[in-house]
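quick one, 165 residues, struct below
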Amino acid sequence: MQLNEFLMPEFKEEMASTRRMLAAFDSQLADYKPHEKSMSLKNLANHIADIPTWVGVTFLNSELDFAKSNFKRVVFDNPTDLVAAFDKNVADAEACLAQTSNETMYQNWTMRNGETIYFTMPKIAVYRTWVMNHLIHHRAQMATYLRAAGAKVPGMYGPTADDAM
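---
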């Protein structure tokens, strides 16, 4: 079995859960922050929607150099546009993952800012840590924001207190 075949079911399941969370984004709570040091709910939701783009950044490149990056996040203010952007990012990521060979997954990838190297590790480890775990972490963070703001929280691995039993 190819590693991408092994990873794909989890990818699809986690992206479906993430889509439910992003669909719960409420524009009226866009500026909500649970703490002054926290990012706003809008910035957090937009960051989550961008994370699937890291699949291509990881598997199609040997490094990410922030000093050379021209990334500009498009910020969405409503759940419809946010989810549509996420869906496109997921479709692109899924297509990339489906085409990624075992050989590519074991190649090293580096995150850097010019001469400063943050880390170098196999692409499959970058995928697990900086794509999947990173996305799941921020998705859980968004759930706590929603709960603290009094909004309904969708279930990720089963129902929440907001789901009808």
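The radius of gyration is 17 Å.
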